[in-house]
Design goal:
The chain is built from 16 helices and 13 strands. The chain is α/β, with parallel strands linked by helices. The strands form 2 sheets. It has a 7-stranded parallel beta sheet, with helices on both faces. Strands 10-9-8-11-12-13 form a 6-stranded parallel beta sheet, sandwiched between helices. Helix 6 links the parallel strand 6 and strand 7. Helix 3 packs across helix 4, helix 7 crosses helix 13 and helix 11 packs across helix 12. The longest helix has 20 residues. The two termini are 15 Å apart. The protein binds uridine-diphosphate-N-acetylglucosamine (UD1) and uridine-5'-diphosphate.
């Protein structure tokens, strides 16, 4: 593999790809020119606000994208179609040996589809995750990507098993989770550099951190009513990072504006624009409790040892449920608020989170080694 292209587009993909970029950079430093790997970055432009994109390029070992398609927001069909067209053009010109896609977003699906149709080896990082809820756009993206990609890089052994159940057995690798690599690398940096606690006026161990962005929640007025009642009913300082998807609704959709006013009136709630990655890590590790519907934030809470309530009806990341570190709480205040009270009052699990399920913190290196090994085998045959 002389030339790789990573395709990214949204906030968590910048984090994941940064670790692969760092692994490639480490490899290139140690090897002579002929063994080096060229790694290009294609940003679809799915996320584009400063806090959703550029800040990650400033804080993480991510070079500026070699290509930015500037696709922006849109309906699923229109957005994915624009990405497909733009990605195909780049791939035809660059002719990479391998395309790497990450996670389960529209950028993932478009990248995988464009690459496999051009017979370019396609690798899926974070393969084998399932919620078994086909109403989630992410579930469709994951299933489709796993079934068309050539190389499946799984973050956990459960993911390997899930693929096996779907008949996918070849070229499946347990690599560990690149997000654990990122937390191991950047949590110490975040603890040194972040001044978010002071800026937000909260003290370690004395606040709750919340995020909400999943379409299944934000696009359902009924579920959002439950979430808003829950957030307003909390009895402790709560930092609520508001994703632009929800911001748009609270500001511009009549049915949601009332909810926006309720949130604004709740004095314990600090509603903030999306936080930078380092601030987010620092807050996750300093909070007494995390409440979220995010996949990445659930995992990070587990990695840093902060209990989490997942405001969804299921989770793909079942390993985080270990010993009650994460609880699938749904969105009804009648269920969530008592759980929050219990955790706040000290109902922390007694054991440490079992991080080994997510590998050894060297997932990106494992991914690169697998790619290089495959290449060596191909050359030898
Ligand atoms: C996307 C992914 C989701 C992932 C999330 C990470 C899909 C289908 N969804 O959801 O799986 O968990 O990213 O955060 O790929 N917007 C802005 N500025 C931005 C980006 C978005 O204002 O920089 C607003 C727009 O109104 C847009 C809405 O947010 O319509 C949704 O953005 P989109 O990229 O479609 O999906 P996400 O909800 O961000
Ligand atoms: N994140 C961040 N700032 C925030 C919220 C999240 O930097 O205000 C980071 C978080 O630390 C994690 C990633 O974004 O690394 C998770 O992305 P998100 O919740 O948007 O999507 P998901 O993981 O659910 O796909």
């Amino acid at each position: 593999m002389k030339k790789l292209i990573s395709i990214v587009g949204v906030r968590p993909q910048f984090v994941k790809a940064a670790m692969v970029c760092a692994a490639v950079a480490g490899h290139n430093q140690k090897h002579a020119r002929e063994q080096r790997v060229k790694h290009l970055l294609l940003h679809t432009g799915q996320h584009y606000d400063y806090e959703m994109a550029a800040v990650f390029f400033q804080q993480l070992p991510l070079p500026a994208p070699d290509f930015n398609l500037g696709v922006g927001s849109g309906t699923h069909g229109a957005q994915t179609a624009m990405m497909l067209k733009g990605i195909e053009k780049v791939l035809l010109k660059e002719k990479p040996d391998c395309v790497i896609v990450y996670g389960d977003t529209n950028s993932t699906l478009a990248g995988a589809l464009a690459a496999v149709k051009l017979h370019i080896v396609t690798a899926h990082v974070e393969s084998g995750l399932r919620s078994f809820n086909r109403r989630m756009p992410e579930e469709i993206n994951r299933i489709a990507t796993d079934h068309i990609a050539d190389l499946l890089f799984c973050p956990t052994r459960a993911a390997v098993k899930l693929l096996e159940h779907e008949g996918i057995r070849d070229n499946v690798y347990f690599t560990g989770d690149v997000m654990l690599d990122a937390v191991k690398t950047f949590l110490p940096v975040a603890s040194r550099r972040s001044v978010a606690l002071t800026d937000l006026g909260v003290s370690p161990g004395k606040f709750i951190l919340a995020t909400i962005h999943r379409a299944e929640n934000t696009d359902s007025l009924e579920r959002m009513r439950g979430i808003v009642e829950t957030l307003c009913g909390l009895e402790h300082p709560t930092v609520f990072s508001v994703h632009p998807r929800l911001r748009e609704k609270l500001n511009h959709e009549a049915a949601y504006q009332k909810l926006g006013r309720e949130l604004a009136r709740a004095r314990h709630l600090k509603m903030v624009a999306p936080l930078s990655y380092l601030d987010m890590l620092h807050l996750e590790s300093s909070a007494r409790l995390v409440m979220t519907d995010s996949g990445g934030v659930q995992k990070e809470a587990f990695f840093v040892g902060t209990p989490c309530l997942t405001l969804r009806d299921e989770t793909e990341w079942t390993e985080t449920l270990h010993d009650g570190w994460n609880k699938v709480a749904g969105v009804s205040p009648r269920k969530v608020l008592p759980l929050a009270r219990e955790l706040w009052a000290g109902g922390r699990p007694r054991t440490k989170p079992a991080l080994a399920a997510f590998g050894d913190g060297k997932a990106a290196r494992n991914i690169l080694d697998s790619l290089l090994e495959l290449n060596a085998k191909k050359k030898a045959s």
